[in-house]
Amino acid sequence: MKNIWNFYKGTIAVTVRGSAAYYCWVAFLLALMVIGVITYIVQLNDGLIITNMRDQVSWGFYISNFTFLVGVAAAAVLLVIPAYVYHWKPIKEIALLGELLAISAIIMCLLFVTADLGRPDRFWHLIPFVGILNFPQSLLAWDVMVLNLYLTLNLVIAVYYLYNLYYKRVPNKNFMTPLLLLSIPAAISIHTVTAFLYNGLAARPFWNASILAPRFLASAFCSGPAFMILIFFLVRKYTRFKITDEAIQKIAELIAYAMFINLFLLGAEIFKEYYSDTVHLAPMQYLLQGLHGHNALVPWIWTAMIFNVTAFMIFLIPDTRRNNTALVFGCVLIFVGVYIEKGMGLVIPGFVPDVLHEIYEYVPSGMEMMIAIGIWATGLFVFTMLLRVAIPIMNGDFHVAEDGVGFQISDNLFFLRKSDREKDINGSDENATATSEGSDSA
Amino acid sequence: MCNESSHDKHAFRKSRRKVLKGLAAGIGALALPATNASASVWEAFFQKNFRELNKTELNQVLARLEGEYSKEYGKQVTVKATLPIEGVKYGYGLDLSRCIGCRRCVYGCVEENNQSREPEIQWIRVMQLDKEKGVDLSHAEHYYNPPEVPQEGKFYMPVQCQQCENPPCTKVCPVQATWKENDGIVVVDYNWCIGCRYCMAACPYSARHFNWAKGKLPKEEMNPDTHYLGNRPRPVGVVEKCTFCIQRTREQPGRYPACAEVCPVGARKFGNMLDPKSEIRYLIENKRVFIFKEDLNTQPKFFYFYAT
Fold it and tell me: In this complex, is the C-beta atom of B133 within 8 Å of any C-beta atom belonging to chain A?
């Protein structure tokens, strides 16, 4: 117990240290979080009327973001599978970052769902045995279960792993491996269940297509890893952590396959709707062409399509894939493309036209966006803090002190400037001299 | 429904809730200003699901609500929890050949059921359709406003909760805040609903409505004869819907739903489907009847028919 407490103290100490850039970044996130909280308080007071959701479009921006982020969270398995099933070393070294991203994404998911609730004060009604969780009837109950299971799994794995590294012990494989293997079906299930949540509604033909869950998985395996690659580039550019090109290339290759499947499934869906030309075509028309003069989503979805196809070409052609600039560009395109396609592009056409064919054109309100930005900032804040602790531990820059009680931090900057990095590489390690130690007395 | 045995079955829940109650009261005492922390706020917060209340608890809840509403609306408000009548299953008939699209049912319903006037909530939606095209919703006009109705070449189709025998909305609720009663009425416990609106996504008839803000209901327009599962004033952030005027129809002798009563052309029929001599049974057996969106297998107890 004492060890856990000391570890915890160490992590607090390490998160409050950093370069000016690190402080600026964290302050920026905190400011956005404050804006989000203030706006949320307004929403608590006035009700969800401050959003642009109405009876016709009863889910909007919050649930769109939620859906997208479930995908990002699920995508951590794309790192776990090569690392722990195939024991591929270059990815094994970075798989933990994927789990940390999953933790942050799930936290954002839970916050988005909470923001969408009309009565967040009755949240306890969802807790099994205390309230009434309508399991197994309601898919939302399933979602609550699997999201929390997946969050717990990733937290336990990551914290256990880092804790052991911190104390310079070897993590117990017999404990870690089963959990890691379990996290693979758990990741797939959070995504499948979220897809089924929409899929099971016969009232909404746009969602009531059996291709939905496979499409969800395919697009998740694009957006999540694309975000991971961007993080890898940032991490290896601005921190001391080393990530090989080989690992990044492998992930990029996987993205290419996933994007192909995603585009194929999308095409299959578009064909079916347009060729059969039933009344169920209307939502698809609204999305792609506009319906009766209403076309708010049209420019967005075509942007997404162009982004996704361009990114697919970049990832498919080996020359562009191996070019890091093109790769980063492709990742940004995929992230934005999937965000549109699987966020608003998936949720809103389910409601437009509504079940009585009324068209209410939904665009999120300013306050809705501010709350969403606040939640994204919270997620990025959590992710930054997790990386701040994890990266020095994995680099060996943050570990227990010689006395076995205090902590030793040799990475006091975290975000490095170019000049710092060069110093780092040249070996004239100025940071090492600034090594600080903490102990119980400190 | 709320007998002693169901109470015992959930006794373990009660003890856990006590723990939670203590915990939350502790936190709440810090968070809430002292003036707000009245007993009734906490009673409302920890209130059980309607179906888990025993008789004493139910009476306490009803008394608390009556007190709150009477104070808020400045008149004596009653909140009933009348149980379903044995051997009754309600059915509704709507004669499309008679309906003239006057929307008196829409406003009669609002007056009876204490819907919010601002933002405006209506449980009945009347669509204006082309006779040539029939029930083709893609041509439906929802906000028609001609100088007089009915318009030449048009017919009118009111839609409200179809009280499905196989309701897709209750199935999806994550907390069992909505269910089908024994007389076939689908109800919502406004004090248990968490406002996730999954039921609204699931309903094929747009019958469910959300309280996006705290509804405004003028004191003088408030109907004080209310039912817990029906027309009592709704809190913000919960879903509400048509209950076939549960506060009227479960009385003995019962009254027609407000929409059926107010209809000037007799297009609306209501009765007990289990009674072979009822009007609704006659209609179902002898008229050209259809149910809305039959292919979805929701099995509505709301029957559209053409009498002439």
Answer: no
Specify if A234 maps to a domain.
yes
Would you list the domain boundaries of chain B? 4-76, 80-308
Measured between beta carbons, which residues in chain B are less than 8 angstroms from residue A138? 171-174, 198
List own/partner pairs for A211-217 with CB under 8 A and 24 or more apart.
A211/A265, A211/A268, A211/A269, A214/A261, A214/A265, A215/A262, A215/A265, A215/A266, A215/A269, A216/A71, A216/A191, A216/A192, A216/A342, A217/A74, A217/A188, A217/A191, A217/A192
Give me the interface pTM, i.e. the ipTM: 0.91
Instruction: Read off the CATH number of the domain in which A383 is found.
Output: 1.20.1630.10
Which two structure tokens, joined as six digits, stand for A252? 């990029």
Residue A437 located in a structural domain: no
Shortest CA gap B20–chain A (Å): 8
Mean pLDDT of all residues belonging to chain B: 91
Task: Tell me, yes or no, if A275 comes closer than 8 A to chain B by beta carbon.
Answer: no
Q: For residue range A357-397, what is the model confidence (pLDDT) as tens digits? A: 999 999 999 999 999 999 999 999 999 999 999 999 999 99
Mean pLDDT of chain A: 91
Tokens representing A421 are 């990095």
Residue A59 located in a structural domain: yes
Q: How would you write B229-260 as a 3-class SS string?
A: CCCCCCCCCCEECCCCCHHHHCCCCCCCCHHH
**Nearest-5° Cα angle at B293, B231 to B203:** 40
Range of the domain at A262: 2-409
Q: Judge whether A284 and A349 are in contact, CB under 8 Å.
A: yes
CATH 3.40.630.30 assigned to domain B80-308? The reply is no
Domain assignment present for A159? yes
